[in-house]
Design a protein that fits this description.
With 420 residues, the protein is an alpha/beta fold. The protein has 19 helices and ten strands. It has two domains: 123 residues, no CATH class; 289 residues, Vaccinia Virus protein VP39 (Rossmann fold), CATH 3.40.50. Helix 11 links the parallel strand 5 and strand 6. Helix 2 packs across helix 3.
Length: 420
């Protein structure tokens, strides 16, 4: 496909005010940003085709810049937020966006020149205070993503409605095996937690209820907490349909409001929504709710520690459009927080980022195949480009190794050990 064949979508300015038109940056700033961006891209194994100008790069996946001035103005004004908004606006595209984004993710630490990295606090946008995950703000942040539409998520997830990394037997993964791979992941977590007949299990982050149902099928008694009303309602319906009401209770409840004592706690890709400020409180909750001798099974997306420290106060495209209030920890951050704020002990950690890349590929392909159904739900072209970018951007993060996903087992000393 040539750049002439690509056409930007119409953008509704009322719905997408920051996407509808590029910022009105002064020409010198846009020109300077253009020079920096061209120089950075020119050093990468990419082939960047600029409309009306010579391509740059060392060869590799293709990235088409249809509107160079708008592209550079957005990046010059808003950094990586502008890069994502430029894609949403149709000002750049790629025949294989994952391949192009994987190259960029592989060079995330050195794309910005070292002198500018040292001045990051001056040019990078700061995270809005309103996204701090206080109890009230956390409900709002969660709702903005998970209450979009159960029907939307059902279009690209498998029949288990599981929205976290699966564990496959081999690659490349197949769509028809995704549900089995999700059950494999869930069963592994339940095994780590020691969930079985009579186990009192607390789940923090319900999703749409598949883990709770699978635990109940083992004979566990499950209390599951969520802040999403849409998820709570559908999960309750699924529990009722499965005849598991006597073993599963789903509550609209913040983790900080959890009560009771449990033999095991499971939390799947929930810590990413907590925020670094509240990580100590989150892990203390796991400890406080867990009985002596109990086990915690945790699944978490992680990023490199140095990049987490460098970007922890930065406002990102993902936070603006996909996961408000979200923040990925590093493995060091998780383990240091647990060590310093709880009585839990790390017993095991396994990383499996390649499996998440495959999970995201299957979601992205299914989302693309069902574009008409997404539109029928009332989501416009800009939303569909946003969601495609989110899935491709995330997949690229795992393919490049910039992101990883971990399963942790933490254990708590017995009463006798605690009393020593």
């Amino acid at each position: 496909m040539t750049t002439a064949e690509l056409r930007p979508p119409a953008v509704d300015p009322a719905r997408w005010p920051d996407v509808a038109a590029p910022p009105r940056a002064a020409w010198p700033r846009t020109a300077a940003a253009g020079a920096l961006v061209r120089r950075a891209l020119g050093r990468l194994p990419l082939w960047v085709r600029y409309a009306g100008d010579e391509p740059v790069g060392r060869g590799g996946p293709v990235l088409d810049v249809l509107d160079p001035r708008a592209f550079h103005a957005r990046i010059g004004s808003r950094g990586l937020i502008g890069f994502g908004e430029s894609y949403m606006a149709g000002e750049w595209d790629a025949p294989d966006p994952v391949a192009a984004l994987t190259v960029l993710a592989s060079h995330a630490a050195d794309l910005v020149p070292e002198p500018l990295q040292r001045l990051r606090r001056l040019w990078a946008p700061r995270r809005p205070g309103g996204q701090r995950n206080t109890p009230d703000a956390a409900r709002s942040n969660v709702s903005r993503h998970y209450d979009l539409s159960n029907d939307l998520f059902a279009l690209f997830l498998d029949d288990t409605l599981t929205y976290s990394s699966a564990v496959f037997r081999g690659f490349p993964a197949r769509q028809d095996l995704l549900a089995s791979a999700q059950h494999r992941k869930i069963d592994r977590l339940l095994d780590l937690a020691g969930a079985g007949a009579g186990t009192r299990l607390l789940e923090i982050g319900t999703g749409w209820g598949e883990l709770a149902l699978r635990a109940a099928a083992r004979g566990a008694h499950v209390t599951s907490l969520t802040l999403s009303q849409e998820q709570r309602d559908l999960a309750r319906n699924r529990v009722r349909a499965a005849g598991a009401d006597d073993r599963v209770r789903i509550e609209l409840c913040d983790y900080r409001e959890a009560r009771g004592t449990y033999d095991a706690v499971v939390s799947v890709e929930m810590v990413e929504a907590v925020g670094a400020e509240f990580w100590p409180r989150y892990f203390r909750t796991l400890d406080e709710r867990l009985a002596p001798g109990g086990r915690v099974a945790l699944q978490a997306i992680t990023m490199p520690h140095d990049r987490m420290l460098a970007t922890r106060d930065t406002f990102t495209w993902i936070q603006k459009y996909i996961f408000p209030g979200g923040q990925l920890p590093s493995t060091e951050a998780v383990e240091h927080t647990v060590r310093d704020h709880t009585r839990l002990t790390l017993a095991r950690r396994d990383g499996f980022g390649a499996h998440y890349a495959e999970t995201l590929r299957l979601w992205r392909e299914r989302f693309t195949e069902r574009a008409d159904a997404v539109a029928a739900l009332g989501f416009d072209d800009t939303f569909r480009r946003m969601w495609t970018f989110y899935l491709a951007y995330s997949e690229a993060g795992f393919r490049s190794g910039y992101l990883d996903v971990q399963q942790y087992l933490f254990t708590k000393p017995t009463e006798k050990e605690l009393s020593r």
